[in-house]
Amino acid sequence: MSRFDDEDERPEELTTWLTAGLRRTEALSWRRWNFTLDETLKWRSAGVAEALLAAQWQAAGVAPNKVGDWVDAEIGPGEAIRWHEFGFDLAEARVHAKNGEAPDEVFQRRNLKRQYMPQAAAGATLPGIHQLLQAGVPHEVLRSYMEAQWYDKEAITWAKQDIQAGDARLWQGLGLTSSEAGELRKADRTPVDVIQEWWRAGIPFDEVAEWLGAGLTAEEAVAQRASGVTVEQAAALRALRRGGAV
Known about the structure:
rod-shaped
């Protein structure tokens, strides 16, 4: 909405703007965004030449004399508005933006931390919760570990693979490591899918992890067994793939 009903009906004020060095179109634009001449000159002195940009900076809670600090942090007015909406000041926004974090991600992590601090104070392992939060684990995955009350170092390795706590327990029961299960998750495989596939192939349950860890499908494992390859050989190949000693 315009500050004035009709700028053309008040030439004396428009003349003042023109005398200050603004072109008519510029003056009208700043006035439409409800800026006074004094405010306009401050924004222009700060390097903000367009009224729209000044309005965005203003919406982000940034004063003209602070614009340079945000620009130095490589944060533009649109992004500054988002940081402001989520309650972050420049010092916080600068650190998180430098780490490639978006304001909604940081806000979500902070809220999760606040949500589960009482739980930690009641006996949960605080360092474990902190590490889960710091690892950038997705909200839904993190929640599954909180609900399972599983916060140790092992939980962190599984959570970093974006594997839900319940699935992690199933993969563990199958004998897989977190990294092996992570590869399967990236291929959109679930523990139930894998168990069914290998059960139908007739591979003994105790051998499944070795063949899977060696990088074979159930069909490939059946063929290898038929050609005389033993589970011990599969285990050796698995160890090599994991970087362990054969």
